[in-house]
Design brief:
The protein is built from eight helices and twelve strands. The chain has two domains: 106 residues, Aminopeptidase; 143 residues, Aminopeptidase. The radius of gyration is 21 Å and the shape is elongated. The strands form two sheets. The chain has an eight-stranded mixed β-sheet. The chain has 293 residues and is α+β, with helices and mostly antiparallel strands.
C-alpha cells in the first residue's frame, strides 16, 4: 500500500536515498546523492525539507519531490517516480500535495525547469495546469586560447569602442556595484543572485572596467567548467565579452539553462557557443485554498 509524507530537517538521509532510488535510474551518469551533497543543495538552491515529499510502498521510497523556496516562489527542483512504479499517479499526487500546501502557506508561484528529454515529466506538468513560459537552452563553448592569462593583453585593441582593462572580479565586487540583484536579467534558479551569493567562494570572475564602471563581466567555476553569469553593459558587438571569454583558457565550458531574456541565441552563437540541450520552464500561480493553478 502506498503512502506519502512531507519531510523534516532530520530526513536528509531519507531524501538522499529516495533520490538515488527514484531519480538516479533516469540519470545514471550523475554521481550518487549523499547527505553532504544534499546539504550543499540546501545552501546553494534554498532547498526546504518541508517542501520535499517522499512516496512509499511499505518502507521503500518509490517517489520523491524536491522543492526549493524563495520569497519569489517555489521551484520543483526534482520530481521522480521509480521506473517500476510509474503510471500509477504518484507523480501527480506529489505535485498536487505540494500545491495544496503552498496554496495555504505561500508563495503562490511555483515553477519547474524540466529537461526536454523527460517527456513524461513535461506531460505531468502540462496535465496539471502548468504553462510553459520559456525554453531554457544549454550552451557549450570550446575555448582554444592559451590558459596562461599573462599571455593576453590587459585591454582590448584599438577600435573596440574605447574598452577598459580586464581585471579580476568577484560576486561581492559586482554586488557592491549594483550589478546583481534586481537589475539582473531573468535567469534560471541555479544561476540566480541567491545561488551566486551562496556559492561565491567557489566562483571566479573577470571584468572589463573603465575608469568609471564595470562594462562587462563573466563569472565561472573553473573546477567544473561552468559559466554562471555573462553580461555586457556596452553595445560593442560583443567585443568585451569575447575578450573575457578568451581569457578563460583552453577547455570546454558549459553555460546552462540560458533564458532568451538573458542573452539571445544570435549573440551567443556569435561568441562561439553552440546549443547542447534544453529545459522547459513551466510555471503556475496557485489559486488560494485550491492547491491547483
Amino acid at each position: 500500500m502506498s503512502s506519502y509524507r512531507f519531510c523534516r530537517s532530520d530526513d536528509i538521509a531519507l531524501l538522499a536515498d529516495a533520490l538515488n532510488r527514484c531519480w538516479s535510474p533516469y540519470f545514471p551518469g550523475e554521481p550518487a546523492v549523499t547527505p553532504a551533497s544534499f546539504k550543499r543543495s540546501i545552501r546553494d538552491l534554498q532547498i526546504w525539507c518541508s517542501s520535499c515529499m517522499v512516496a512509499f510502498s511499505g518502507s521503500d521510497p518509490i517517489g520523491v519531490l524536491i522543492g526549493a523556496k524563495r520569497p519569489s516562489g517555489t521551484l520543483v527542483h526534482k520530481i521522480a517516480v521509480h521506473p517500476d512504479h510509474r503510471r500509477q499517479g504518484h507523480g501527480r499526487h506529489l505535485l498536487a500535495s505540494l500545491g495544496s500546501k503552498l496554496a495555504i502557506l505561500g508563495p503562490p508561484r511555483i515553477i519547474a525547469e524540466i529537461p526536454e528529454t523527460l517527456a513524461p515529466a513535461c506531460e505531468l506538468f502540462s496535465a496539471s495546469g502548468y504553462v510553459q513560459e520559456s525554453l531554457l537552452t544549454d550552451y557549450v563553448l570550446q575555448c582554444e586560447g592559451p590558459s596562461n592569462r599573462a599571455e593576453f593583453p590587459r585591454s582590448l585593441g584599438a577600435g573596440d569602442h574605447d574598452a577598459g582593462f580586464v581585471i579580476p572580479a568577484t560576486v561581492d565586487d559586482l554586488a557592491a556595484n549594483d550589478l546583481l540583484g534586481e537589475a539582473h536579467p531573468q535567469v534560471c534558479w541555479e544561476r540566480s543572485v541567491e545561488t551566486l551569493t551562496a556559492r561565491k567562494d567557489d566562483i571566479e570572475g573577470l571584468a572589463v572596467a573603465s575608469d568609471e564602471r564595470i562594462e562587462a563581466y563573466v563569472l565561472y567555476v573553473s573546477s567544473t567548467g561552468e559559466i554562471v553569469s555573462l553580461r555586457s553593459f556596452i553595445d560593442d558587438g560583443g567585443a568585451r565579452l569575447k575578450q573575457l571569454l578568451s581569457r578563460l583558457g583552453m577547455g570546454t565550458f558549459r553555460f546552462p539553462k540560458v533564458n532568451p531574456a538573458e542573452l539571445s541565441k544570435e549573440c551567443l552563437q556569435m561568441l562561439g557557443f553552440r546549443p547542447a540541450g534544453g529545459h522547459r520552464l513551466y510555471a503556475a500561480t496557485l489559486r488560494q485554498g485550491s492547491g491547483s493553478p
